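Forum > Structural Biology > Help requests

Title: Can anyone predict the 3D structure of Very long-chain fatty acid transport protein?

Hi all, first post here. I have the sequence for Very long-chain fatty acid transport protein but no way to get a structure on my laptop. I'd be grateful if someone could post the structure tokens.
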Amino acid sequence: MEVATRHEGASGFLYEDEWAYACTLGNMLALFRRIAIAIHMRLRARERDGGDGGAEKLKLVEVEVEAFEEAPRAQIFHFIPLMITTAAAATAALVGTSALAAYADAKFHVSQDVGQLQQRRRAEKWYIENASKNRLSLWYPFCNNVTKFPNDPCIWSREGELTWQEVHDRAARYAQYFIAKGVKPGELVAFYLQNSADFVVIWLALFCIGCAPAMINFNLKGNSLIHCLRLSRSKTLLVDEDEACQERVKECRTVIEGELGMNITVLGAEIKAKATAMPVTVPDDSWRESVNGASPSALLYTSGTTGLPKAAIMPVQRIWALGNQKKPSFGQVPGPGGDRWYSCMPMFHGTGGLTMVANLMGGLSLAIGKRFSVSTFWDDIHDSECTIFVYVGEAARYLLNAPHHPRERDHPRLRIMYGNGLRPDVWERFRDRFDVPEIAEFFNSTEGLFQLLNYNRGDFTAGAVGHQGALMRRLVQNVFIPVQVDAETGDVYRDSTTGLAKRMSYEDGGEILVAIPSERAFGGYFNDDKATSKKILHDVFRKGDIFYRTGDALRRDGDGRWYFIDRLGDTFRWKSENVSTAEVAETLGRYSGVAEANVYGVTVPKHDGRAGCVALSLSVRREDFDFDGFFGHARANLPRYAVPVFLRLVAKESSTDNNKQNKVPLREEGIDLDILGSKVIGGEYDVLLWHPGGYGYVKFEKSDLEKLRSGELTI
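Reply #1:
Sure, ran it for you. Structure tokens for Very long-chain fatty acid transport protein below:
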């Protein structure tokens, strides 16, 4: 298969593989044929009526349709802009004005769709050009920008500003440092690091020697940390000099160094001095010659329903697709005086890290904040002179809920906020208060098979996670498909007779499945075949088809606006992090006196995401259970965001007929004390505790719920 071979089967261009490329072209051809026929018939009617100028337009349409239909597949995208222009011009000829064409484009957003396809085509061409020269390492596009802008600002942080040449030289020194440590091309180096300029510099250094980082969440500890390190198979663990980070690693040192055989290196003054003493010598091309489109740019981790974090490779090809030097998205300008991206989101996450590195490839400078803080955010925006900042939805709400900041509108260069998870009720209030005119909200996953973007500059698409015009909707109608899901099991619903799934309307929505030609189209989870297999469905709508499960439910309205419904499965988001119920339950279940821990997420008034709640069945009398000890156990063995906020003492376990934990009725009742027992049998006798702050759990009262509803209390 031509494209699959050319792209090593990695995702990033068009719709991720040959399957989508072919179906895209077929659908596009059918759509344009229908448009052309309609215009053709109208123009013939005009000619019969003696209309002026119709013959010339008619001939133009006929010529372009013939060329479009007969063009080789590889050239067909070149006809899209001309076809649109032809269609618009011919339509305008019917009324003697371009007003109808402008109205049609405003209604169907064809030019937006064509622009996206053209951008993907440019990125693909850029990628192919470099692949033919065996220069797919991301070190090369970075170096191209160093040549163009050597003395211009590249990375800003509170520690100072580095030029492109300084970043290059620093990365070359770190590359020599890693070579001296015995790191080989193709290896992953584990990052347990907080945000800094050196985070990016060292990332580039790994690109320079044909390597990539494994992005470990620096909040992890204990079994979760060891699990992620084991998955990476890294030989080197780079640890932040932060004392808390070092302490968490120290607690696992015996396993990390012994069982895993990893070398622990603290990125402190001593190591930085050693790297600085290295020569500014770029290793030769042989260090990067094995890098192809499927090679990792990073190993990312994502929590799923299996319990512990899963790892997925972000292939190099997708960064080439994101960091297009030819024509950056959103009207950005590279180089001196151009656009600058600011992020204080954790760089071990794709949104905070990969976004920034991809922009470096496109010649755009960066500004890096160490961590998110409502008190310093606008100071960083002002001082860095950024034009775009990266967000996650909760961060936007935190900023909106914060008191007035003197610099919250004092940012003359800022024009775009880019990220995901921006809640509809925050959208316009944020834009109006902080004077951020453009919002680029995207929807994606680490695996990257389902991607949406909403580049919003007005009311029409406000609150949507993506937008598609008529052309793109037609192209993906059999690629991105909403299906019904069993609310109890979380499985895709199957008809009892046919065994096939039930397709939902886009307006009603459902879990989105993505059509793929083979299991190879989904790169899978790193070193986890079992988790990978759970994401693939066979014989969904007909015998032999294959689909990828996104695990997310969305709907799309008649105007092409996509809206997020819910994250399916057991995992929930709290404090900007994914929390795995199985992992939490396993940890809590080890505490003495716990018979069963059933963990789920509950909505909390005036708060984003879902707070953790554990339905606890005890093997001892309640008065004999050590609740303070239980809380201490949770705090000691889980990241802070994963410690349950609520604790429900249940009289009877909630389970299905086959003895599996049943979270659905517990989740539906949530923390509303008035409806306890309405879904859970015997639930009216349950007692709800919570952890509002401080240490330990206390009884959750109706007055507490009312204070949460009014906003008087926050968690």
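Confidence is low (pLDDT under 50) at residues 1-27, 57-97, 656-660. The domain at 477-567 is CATH 2.30.38.10 (Luciferase; domain 3).
Shout if anything looks off.
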